[in-house]
Structures are given as structure tokens and as C-alpha cells.
Amino acid sequence: MVKVAFCDFRFLLLIAAAVFIYIQMRLFATQSQYADRLAAAIEAENHCTSQMRSLIDQISLQQGRIVSLEEETTRRDQEFRQIKSLLQHHRRKDLQRLMDNVQVPVAAVVIMACNRADYLERTINSVLKFQRPISSRFPLFVSQDGSNPDVKSKALSYDQLSYIQHLDLKPVETERPGELIAYYKIASHYKWALDQLFYKYNFTRVIILEDDMEIAPDFFDYFEATSALLDKDKSIMAVSSWNDNGQKQFVHDPYELHRSDFFPGLGWMLARPTWDELLKENHKGRQFIRPEVCRTYNFGEHGSSLGQFFKQYLEPIKLNEVQVDWKSLDLSYLLEDKYTMHFANIVHKAKPVYGADMVLKAYNIDGDVRIKYKDQSDFENIARQFGIFEEWKDGVPRTAYKGVVVFRYQTKRIFLVGSESLKQLQIKDF
């Protein structure tokens, strides 16, 4: 019985040992797994630490680059501020130099237009031919009276000019029956355009052209040179580029200029102070400067004047072709205090002619000729013989200065002298 119990005890002990060994083996296996995991974790930790250190190194490197870039940015900002300051300095100098070199316009040039688009195009092209190189000194305008679409379209097709438009729908009342309404409309347009250019655009001088004109090569030089006369001599109302007796057979000297009591028009320059006064009163006996050889040519056979005088007086006009260096010439002889004596000396030297057949007698005389006329009728008779303009306006013959009309005949000068002219010129009667 005891033996059986002992055997059972050893058997149980063996089972316990087996269980213990199994447990130990399981524990060892578990410990091995944990050891492997721990080693992997340590390795992973070491790898993470290595990556962290690498990342820290990269961050440190990037921080170093950032610091370097910040320093470079600061340096470049300083350089930029220095360059900007230097550039502003040079810009101020260049602007000042530019302002020093900027030329105040001599005069605005305005082409007065209405309803003749083809004429306007010819005039603009003629003006631009000589105006382009000096456009800053002679800004170009077209002023249209009315709303003709072709004229407006033509004017706006040019980038080189400014366009202004006069619209006046009020009915025109003439002072006397039978007068042409067109002339009143033209006068209204002229006043409006001059007001615009003098008071809105603030020009000191304006050159007025019509839409049926061509200009000479020295047109702008002529007006620039004579602008000084307008400034110095208040007795000059305007400077004109036109001579009513400027037909080919009656002119010769492109350098010759005259004063006149008769307003020539057809391409003329006016100063703002004179316009200010004209708005309040008439021209107060002022005179005009005109050339012997025209600086404008009027090709407008069809217009408000209905072609009056065109074939006889306008078509044969000689347009100057000589490039006169006006800036080199002394024009002071045209000032009021000098011109009367200057002109009187020329008239005084001319040889007097009397009686009939004056054209023939003038033909046979060498040098200048003077012919006295008694009154308007007598003047018209003599003018008709030579073929010059017979017309008077307000008691003044066309082109006259103190009643004296001068024109060329075979290059010599012919002076038609009024009955009071010599006294006004302080010349003893002949």
C-alpha cells in the first residue's frame, strides 16, 4: 500500500517536473521573443536617434542657410536702397536737365475746318510735312465747325494732332440785309477756337490756318522769328504769311517783309495779350507784318467765298520755295519806331512817274518807281492797268501801309502813293 502510494508520488513529481520544464521552456521562448523584440526596439531606437541627429544636423544646416540668406537679404536691401537713392538722384538731375531743355511752344497751330474733308486732308499733310520735326514747339489742332462726319473722321485719323469741335445751333442774325450768313458762322467759330486755345489750353500765341492751304518750307521758321516782334511791339496786331499781291509776276524777294494797315489773313499769328484787348475793343490802328512772297498757298476754289477772286488772284500766288534762315536775320527794322523811316527812305529813292501810260513808263525805268494816286477811283484805275488787287476795305487798299501799296514789276518795286502818304512818311512832295 505504501509502495503504491510512493509510486504515485514519483509519478506526480515526474509530471510536475515535466510541467516545470515546459513552463521554463515557454518562459525561455517568451524571453527570447522579448529579447529579440527588445533588440529590434533598441535598434529602431538607435535608427530613430540617428535619423533625429541627421534631421537635427539638416535643420542646423538649413538654419545656417537661413541666417546666411537673411544676411544676404539684408545686404541686398541695403544695396537696393543705395541704388534706389542713386537712381532717384539721377532721375531728379535728368528731370531737371529735361526741364531746362524743354521749350515752351512758340505757338499752337489750328486748322479751321467745316465740311471739306478732302481739302482738310491736303492741308494736314502739307503742315505735317514740316511740323513733325518740331511738333513740341508748334502743337497742331483741328477745330471743326459743325458735325460733318467725314471731316471729324478725317481729323481723328491723325495721331499727330488734337481735335476740337464747335457746335453752335443758334440762328444767325445778320447786321445788314443780304449779308452772307456763312461769314457770321466763321467769325463765331474763330472766336470760340481762339478762346479755347488761349484760355483752356493756355497758349501764348496761335497760328490760324484754314482747311484749304499749303505751307512753305520756312513757314514755321518765319513765324518763330517774327514772334519776337509781337512780344516787343504792341503796335503789331498780328503776323501774316500772306500777300494779297503775291502773284508770281508781282513778287521777287523771299527775304522782304513789310508792315501793313490792311489785315492779310490767310495764315496768321496772334498773341494772347492782343486777343484779350480785341475782345474789349477794335485793333486801335495796329498794323500787320506780311511777307513779299507768300508762306501759304490757298487752293480753295470752292468754299464760303464762292470762288471769288480765285482764278485771277489766288491761283497764280507764288508759294515760297527758298529755305530762309530767319533766325540769322535782323528784323528790328520792322519795329514801329524804325519802320516808318526805313520805308520812307525806300519810297523817297524811287523815281516818280507822271501822266498816262504808266505801265510803259515804269517798264522803261531802271530801278524802283513811285506813282501818285488821287483817290480810290484813281487807285483802282492804276491797279487795273498793272493787274494788282483793286479792292479797298474800310478806306484802306489791300496791302497798303500809310496808303502806299508796293509790288514788284520785273523785279523793280512799284509804289502806288496816296495823296496823304508822303506827309505821313514825312517825305517832301514830288
TrEMBL record:
<dbReference type="Pfam" id="PF03071">
    <property type="entry name" value="GNT-I"/>
</dbReference>
<dbReference type="InterPro" id="IPR004139">
    <property type="entry name" value="Glyco_trans_13"/>
</dbReference>
<comment type="similarity">
    <text>Belongs to the glycosyltransferase 13 family.</text>
</comment>
<comment type="pathway">
    <text>Protein modification; protein glycosylation.</text>
</comment>
<keyword id="KW-0812">Transmembrane</keyword>
<keyword id="KW-0464">Manganese</keyword>
<keyword id="KW-0328">Glycosyltransferase</keyword>
<protein>
    <recommendedName>
        <fullName>Alpha-1,3-mannosyl-glycoprotein 2-beta-N-acetylglucosaminyltransferase</fullName>
        <ecNumber>2.4.1.101</ecNumber>
    </recommendedName>
</protein>
<keyword id="KW-0479">Metal-binding</keyword>
<dbReference type="InterPro" id="IPR052261">
    <property type="entry name" value="Glycosyltransferase_13"/>
</dbReference>
<keyword id="KW-0333">Golgi apparatus</keyword>
<dbReference type="GO" id="GO:0030145">
    <property type="term" value="F:manganese ion binding"/>
</dbReference>
<keyword id="KW-0472">Membrane</keyword>
<keyword id="KW-1133">Transmembrane helix</keyword>
<comment type="function">
    <text>Initiates complex N-linked carbohydrate formation. Essential for the conversion of high-mannose to hybrid and complex N-glycans.</text>
</comment>
<dbReference type="GO" id="GO:0003827">
    <property type="term" value="F:alpha-1,3-mannosylglycoprotein 2-beta-N-acetylglucosaminyltransferase activity"/>
</dbReference>
<keyword id="KW-0735">Signal-anchor</keyword>
<dbReference type="GO" id="GO:0000139">
    <property type="term" value="C:Golgi membrane"/>
</dbReference>
<keyword id="KW-0808">Transferase</keyword>
<dbReference type="InterPro" id="IPR029044">
    <property type="entry name" value="Nucleotide-diphossugar_trans"/>
</dbReference>
